[in-house]
Structures are given as structure tokens and as C-alpha cells.
Amino acid sequence: MKALEVKHLCWKYSGSESMALRDISFSLEANRFLGIVGPNEAGKTTLALALRGLIPEHFSGVLQGEIEIFGTTVRSLSSLELAQHIGMVFADPDAQFTAMSVEEEIAFGLENLGLSVEEINERLDWVSELTGIRELLGKPPYDLSGGQKQRVAIAAVLAMKPKIIILDEPTSMLDPHSKDNVFSLLATMKKELQMTIVVIEHNIEKIAELSDEILLLAEGSIRRWEKAERFFDDLHGIAASGIRVPDIIRFSYLAAADSPQPKMPVYFEDIRDRLGQELKRGRTS
Ligand SMILES: Nc1ncnc2c1ncn2[C@@H]1O[C@H](COP(=O)(O)OP(=O)(O)OP(=O)(O)O)[C@@H](O)[C@H]1O
Fold it and tell me: Which part of the chain is the ABC transporter domain (predicted)?
């Protein structure tokens, strides 16, 4: 079942000369993990806002094309239905917080869904365990570290149990340790949840490891949409789109340039094995 289907999506912000999204078409099966990468101003956030239905609802501009969520066009869904289907986490968690404690922050969205007190407590329990924030429940969100804040922001969205979650650069405002923390939460979510996950991320190396598919946007257009293990096959095209190819992947590519197996490795273990094979080949040839 397709969780997302985007058909010829075009968007121009009012007052802007150029199109922010140009003829975007792709689809994503349910429970898959999609990484969206691209240089600055590529249209990544704009695409996320459109998927979440915030464009055109909260922005003025010209929209063409169609987005379907589990076979239903986004335009036919009410704000409440959209919130139940798709959750969104932004780069700046502070922008999301309204309550005086982490517990209230998470419960707030659940109360808006009209859930019973028992259900709210069950979900609070489940999500605090999953995201490792149990000891933070009584604290004010503004008192937390950047990484803790982002975990709470993700927990608040997960607690609503959306079918699809979109995270827009969830690690961009974090220190390296907190970034690792959030990436490990993303890995847990992928492993443990039946959920379709879309993550916009600048760290292509980290996101490639987690993604089933990767979509590369540049200047509002799709430059590449590929299974993660095939994404780096076209290193030159990726670099030409303004993406820095990770050194380890470039090195692996150069070492394997005349290899009989052209498939590019993405996962660290595969890269290690590939380099081992190439070194052995070099020694014996
Ligand atoms: N509210 C807005 N009004 C007008 N133009 C906008 C608005 N938001 C974004 N844009 C323009 O749309 C284009 C795409 O921007 P967008 O923020 O979607 O890119 P991005 O890939 O998310 O960039 P970044 O990685 O820098 O966050 C850019 O040219 C940007 O200037």
C-alpha cells in the first residue's frame, strides 16, 4: 500500500519569481524510511510542508499537482484528519513547545484528539519508554538540552500515532553528541514502529544508513530518487547537484572503480568488506 503518492507537484510562493517545487513525482510504500537530501534552498522544507498539508493551507502561492496519503487526496482531508495521518517535527523544537512540563506537552496533543485519560496515560508511558524521556516528564521543556528537546518534540508527535512522520532536519541545531542521540532514536523508530518515516537531513552519510530510499532535490526538482543501496552509483551526478559525497563512500568508489561488482555500498560493514576485497584483489593482481 502506498503511504504517499506525489503527482506532478509544482509550487510557487506568492511574490517569488521562481518555482520552489517543479514537477515533483514520487511515491513511498507504507512503513518505509525515506531520506530527503539536497543543497540549501532546494525545496526540501517546502516539500515537507506540502506533504503535511500546510502548503497551501497556511501559505499563499500557486499549487499544481496532487498529493495522496494512503490513496486519499490531501485536499479532501480536514486539519484534524491530516494531524492524525501525518505528524511533523521541525528543526527547532522550541517552536513546537507550548506547555510548562514535558508531560503536559505530550498530553496536550492527545487531549486535542479527544482521547480518554487511560489512553493518554498509556501513550505517555509507551512513548516515554521508546524515546528515553521518562526522567524528563516533570521538567519544563525550555530547561532541557537541545538533544533532549528534540527527543521530546519527536515523542509528542509519536504519541499521536500518526501513520506517517516527517522530520525536517531534526539534528541541524544540535551538538554532535545530541545528533547521535537523535539518529539512534530514528534507528529505534525504524526498527520498532510500523510507521512511514520521512527525514530531511544534511548528513547524507547518516541518513543513507537508515533510509530504504533516498530522494535528492535541487533547485526544486528531483535529481535522483533511488533505493539507498543504489543511491551512490552516480557519484558525479550527486556531486553536481551540490551534495558533498562522504569521503568514505568516495574512497570506496575509487577503490572499486574497476571492480566486477559496480553496486555501491552504503552501510559501514559493506564498505569495510568491499575495501577488504579490493585490497586483496590489489595484492593478488
Ligand atoms: N515563505 C516563503 N516565501 C517565499 N519564498 C520562500 C518561502 N520559503 C521558502 N522560500 C523559497 O523557496 C525555495 C525553497 O526553499 P526551502 O526552504 O524549501 O529549501 P530547503 O531545501 O529546505 O533549504 P534549506 O536546506 O536551506 O533549509 C527557496 O528559494 C526559498 O527562498
Answer: 4-244
Q: For residues 76 and 130, state if they share a domain.
A: yes
ipTM of model over 0.85: yes
Helix axes 102-112, 146-158, angle to 10 degrees: 20
**Which CATH number covers residue 78?**
3.40.50.300
Tell me the CA distances in angstroms from 273 to 37, 55, 182, 264, 277, one per residue in order.
26, 45, 27, 12, 6
Evaluate if residue 284 carries a pLDDT over 70. Answer: no
Domain of 269 in residue numbering reads as 246-285
Q: Is 43 in the pocket of ligand 1 (CB under 6 A)?
A: yes
Measured CA to CA, the distance from residue 37 to residue 204 in angstroms comes to 7
274 lies in the same domain as 146: no
Give the residue, by CA position, lying nearest to ligand 1 atom 2.
13
Cα separation, 264 vs 233, whole angstroms: 6
Strands 33-37 and 61-69: unpaired
Quote the cell numbers at residue 2.
502506498
pTM: 0.90
Q: How many domains does the chain have?
A: 2
Residue 120 and residue 214 in one domain: yes
Pocket test residue of 44, 47, 51, 221 for ligand 1, highest count of atoms within 8 A of CB = 44
pLDDT digits (tens, 9 = 90+) for 170-184: 999 888 888 998 999
Q: Is 221 in the pocket of ligand 1 (CB under 6 A)?
A: no
